[in-house]
């Protein structure tokens, strides 16, 4: 069985490695600003004591104030898991850095989030729609989506 990392300890380790980056530790996840997410993800993979080397799932949820991007991560080496989230408050132009350079498996998952939620992943290697056709208007998993418009 995979053990969930202790989030206050994880926050302390990352804060030590990345001074100046604000990280919040909830009981069940870390919350990081979109601007700092790529740096945090890099450290989550490279710190020998953490080594989150497997992106299990990357998904999104639309709330009235923001779009939340959720990372479910595992360390195969340490048999641990963690959840890291970020919140994109600019719902008209939601964007953040791609993590495909960290976890190759993010390529398809970022395309899915782009296609269904409209989140633009900067520096993605091939960001385009994956389920819907080019020219489809809107993002069907957004709360403001109106069918047929």
TrEMBL record:
Belongs to the complex I 30 kDa subunit family. The keyword Oxidoreductase applies. Keywords: Oxidoreductase, Ubiquinone. Residues 31-146 form the NADH:ubiquinone oxidoreductase 30kDa subunit domain. GO terms for molecular function: NADH dehydrogenase (ubiquinone) activity; oxidoreductase activity. It is an enzyme of class 1 (oxidoreductase). It comes from Dehalococcoides mccartyi. Its EC number is 1.6.5.3. InterPro entries: NADH_quin_OxRdtase_su_C/D-like (IPR037232), NADH_UbQ_OxRdtase_30kDa_su (IPR001268). This is NADH-ubiquinone oxidoreductase chain C. Pfam families: Complex1_30kDa (PF00329). The keyword Oxidoreductase applies.
């Amino acid at each position: 069985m995979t053990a969930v990392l202790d989030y206050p300890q994880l926050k302390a380790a990352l804060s030590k490695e990345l001074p100046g980056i604000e990280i919040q530790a909830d009981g069940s996840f870390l919350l990081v600003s979109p601007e700092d997410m790529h740096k945090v993800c890099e450290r989550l993979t490279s710190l020998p004591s953490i080594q989150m080397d497997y992106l299990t799932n990357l998904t999104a949820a639309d709330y009235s104030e923001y779009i939340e991007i959720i990372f479910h991560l595992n360390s195969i080496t340490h048999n641990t898991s963690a959840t890291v989230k970020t919140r994109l408050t600019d719902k008209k132009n939601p964007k953040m850095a791609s993590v495909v350079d960290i976890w190759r498996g993010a390529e398809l998952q970022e395309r899915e989030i782009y296609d269904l939620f409209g989140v633009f992943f900067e520096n993605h290697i091939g960001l385009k729609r994956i389920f819907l056709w080019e020219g489809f208007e809107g993002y069907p998993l957004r709360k403001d989506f109106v069918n047929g418009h």
